[in-house]
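REVIEWER CHECKLIST
Item 1: Sequence provided? yes
Item 2: Single chain? yes
Item 3: Sequence as submitted:
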Amino acid sequence: MKPLGPPPRLYGMKITSNRIEAFFVLFATIVLTLIFYANDFNKTSQVILSLGIAWILYLWFIKKPERPY
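Item 4: Structure as written out by the authors:
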């Protein structure tokens, strides 16, 4: 079934489930990085930050939306 209207947009960009998920991943990445950084696990926080950024970039640019408009 096709959507009833035009796709929702924010600042000209289509809002897809991947971009919404990317914001949740960004939030979780920041929280986990800060927790590990505050407990003096600097290397671990760098790894979590790197993985989170890679995952966000994958969701934002590479992965196709499940229900494209």
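Item 5: Key structural point noted by reviewer: The first strand starts at residue 9 and ends at 10.
Item 6: Recommendation: ____
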